[in-house]
Design a protein that fits this description.
10 helices, mainly alpha, 197 residues, 2 domains
Length: 197
């Protein structure tokens, strides 16, 4: 990835720094498993991206900073990624695009632009998991918010899932809509049913 971006020799310990972040003990879902799943999903759709190496870099960093009690995780991750891009001698334009891409993983709006659509679909690939993995995902998310009372968690989780259900489509790219839309909707509807019970 770095070579494709034009970096011959990236900072020695950068990989270790990022992997260490995803291995933090307080993480239950936003872990190396999630990162690996995102990279695996990306391989299915890499050819659709306009700047595939920038999207891949954004995947590596999109949850690099993760504090369950913070609302600034994406901002901090994006800022770090942008600083890393500059440290590696890449252009401000690349840094700005990577920053922008990571910010769309807040999922507070429908993504605009092909690369943003690819990244968000990859990040939401978990929603279309087979039944066992989806159940594990739900348990992992609940474990990350174990400090939140059940009534509050159920209420807020319903709100989040309903946002995706209410969209015309959960996925933005044709490939993901074709392969995963129906399964993601089925999973989310089943999850909402359990939360309402």
């Amino acid at each position: 990835m770095w070579q494709q971006l034009g970096v011959v020799t990236p900072t020695d310990d950068l990989y270790t720094q990022v992997i260490t972040c995803y291995a933090e003990p307080h993480r239950k879902y936003h872990t190396l498993q999630h990162l690996e799943e995102c990279l695996s999903h990306f391989e299915q759709i890499r050819s659709d991206a306009e700047h595939p190496s920038e999207v891949e870099l954004s995947i590596w960093f999109h949850d690099a900073i993760y504090d369950v009690s913070s609302t600034e995780n994406e901002q901090k991750s994006a800022t770090w990624a942008q600083a890393i891009v500059a440290d590696q001698g890449l252009s401000d334009a690349i840094g700005a695009r990577v920053h922008s891409l990571i910010m769309v993983t807040k999922h507070d709006a429908v993504p605009i632009g092909v690369d943003a659509e690819v990244l968000v679909d990859v990040d939401l690939g978990i929603l279309a998991s087979e039944t066992t993995r989806f159940a594990e995902y739900e348990q992992q998310v609940r474990a990350e918010y174990s400090w939140v009372s059940s009534p509050v968690y159920q209420r807020e989780r319903r709100k989040i899932l309903q946002v995706f259900i209410d969209r015309a489509t959960i996925y933005s790219t044709p490939l993901f809509r074709e392969r995963y839309e129906a399964l993601a909707r089925a999973n989310l509807l089943r999850s909402l049913g359990k939360l309402a019970g």
